[in-house]
């Protein structure tokens, strides 16, 4: 799907009308853990003030929304308390795969008329009852000599948004900004890398259950896609290959050792799963290639916990025929002294969405 730049401004919460730079903390609520990132803007750029992460049980987040409110609220509270976070306003995100985006054409009309018509038009293309969604729209451009306009309709199920805002409120915090994870990744890129005009860059974020793909041209998102595959699939393949429990397989995958014994064959064991993930990514990227044939991707940055699967990064590069490297989500940040450098180096890839969220502010353009 095609997404224009204004989406960087999305704020699905719309609850806090005050613009203030201080007191924001980013929470990326994922299916395996919650990530917390606090950053501040300063004259020389962004300063990373706090980071933290706590695991969630596999039942906490399901089908793109918070399923077990209690455990998520408690985990947020403990992240905030253990790290001594004073900020009360939260920047968070819904998963991009939970957002419905449709482009429609309408006869050219004024803003008020459009405002009155848009709901009716949306009923034809949004596969959800409008009572159940938060709907937003944006005029993209005019076509056919100005007689028609292209309008982007965006809908997110209320149920999904509410599941996230409720846990934030439940933890005694204010959901100030609700972004979409794709755009957090775009912000992460912008904060850390120099944007070259006309350069096409792919951002691939592989979590525990999902993979998000975002293609940027000149730093702006032009294509997004997602796959229902992530680290759990790698772990399951090890359960089969080694005939061990899920927890043991997870430990081998992350540490490289099983019961104190190093598995030198780990990369080989994980290879079939890497191949199948590469194949799925390649298929999604070919959709992008289909709409922009002449604009090949120059570089791909990989992030998310599963970016660290041994051999995956190299194999992706081979299969996609594009240089693939691990992202550095805090490359452009000044890092506060209290942050343990080893911990940050170890967890930076997992914090990529959090990094992008942490620098969002109300009223951003
Ligand atoms: N060193 C490592 N090697 C391989 N895999 C790892 C490593 N560290 C973490 N992972 C995997 O990364 C995944 C967690 O990544 P991440 O925190 O980005 O996901 P999430 O945000 O919780 O999930 P999602 O976004 O899919 O809902 C887990 O599957 C975990 O096993
Ligand atoms: Mg995630």
Q: What does the model show?
A:
- With 365 residues, the chain is an alpha/beta fold.
- The protein has three domains: 5-95 and 159-193 and 331-358, ATPase, nucleotide binding domain (Nucleotidyltransferase, domain 5); 99-157, Dna Ligase, domain 1 (2-Layer Sandwich); 227-324, 2-Layer Sandwich (Nucleotidyltransferase, domain 5), CATH 3.30.420.
- Helix content is 34%, strand content 30%.
- The protein contains ten helices and 18 strands.
- It has helices at 69-82, 111-125, 158-170, 181-192, 231-242, 246-255, 266-291, 312-320, 341-347, 352-358; strands at 24-29, 33-42, 45-55, 61-62, 65-66, 89-94, 99-107, 133-143, 148-157, 174-180, 200-206, 211-217, 220-227, 257-258, 261-262, 299-303, 324-326, 333-335.
- The strands form five sheets. It has a six-stranded mixed sheet, sandwiched between helices. Strands 13-12-11-16-17 form a five-stranded mixed sheet, with helices on both faces.
- Helix 5 (231-242) runs antiparallel to helix 7 (266-291) and helix 7 (266-291) runs parallel beside helix 8.
- The radius of gyration is 21 Å and the shape is globular.
- It starts with 23 loop residues before the first strand and ends in a 7-residue tail after the last helix.
- The model is unreliable at 1-8 and 14-20 (pLDDT under 50).
- Residues 30, 207, 353 line the site of magnesium ion.
- Major β-sheet strand ordering: 10-6-1-2-3-18
CATH superfamily of the largest domain: ATPase, nucleotide binding domain
Number of strands: 18
**Which descriptor suits the 3D outline?**
globular
**CATH class of the largest domain, please?**
Alpha Beta
What is the domain tally? 3
Cα-to-Cα separation, first versus last residue: 22 Å
Radius of gyration, taken over Cα atoms and rounded to an integer in Å: 21 Å
Q: Mind summarizing the main beta sheet?
A: 6 strands, mixed
CATH level-3 fold name of the largest domain: Nucleotidyltransferase, domain 5
The helix fraction, in percent, is 25-40%
